[in-house]
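Q: Here's a chain of 183 amino acids. Please give me its 3D structure as tokens.
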Amino acid sequence: MFNCKIDENIELRLLEERHAEEVFALLEQNRIHLQAELTWLTDQLSVNDAKEYIRAGLERFAANHGLRAGIWLQDNLTGIVSLHGVVWADRKASLGYWLGAAFQGQGLVTKACHTLINHSFSELKLNRLEIQCDSENDRSRKVAERLGFTQEGVLRQSWLSGDRFVDLVVYGLLTSEWQGGEF
């Protein structure tokens, strides 16, 4: 399993099916806040859908193609950070993250990503990580920039969000650029 203590209050834990109700509750409480970024988040979402979301992450982890971990603040689920799209032949992967609105502005996503980047470069021996986010999502872009990612380009109208196409900004980080260490 993947569990990692970030500090005395924050921990990353691999999501398990027993967390389905907590994941569902967090999604429900933040539906409007998250819908633009999580296109799969529909009005018909159920606890069973949360279980499927968790199962998919566990399958990814078991197949050595990444992981999906909860960001826990004092035993409260605040959001999710994930490593996905692992291409072992090229030693690269993508990072993704989302956070409940009430938990923004505390550095949780930045700290969680920092920990996952350290794991990806030191333990998994990846060479490249990528973050793609909506060009209008300033919070997500600032996370990438705080972590030292370089903006590499914009994929124009690359993602359908609701009823409109949005531009995705592509950020990259190489192991040779990573400062690592403690956050």
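Q: Can you summarize the key feature?
A: The chain has a mean pLDDT of 91.
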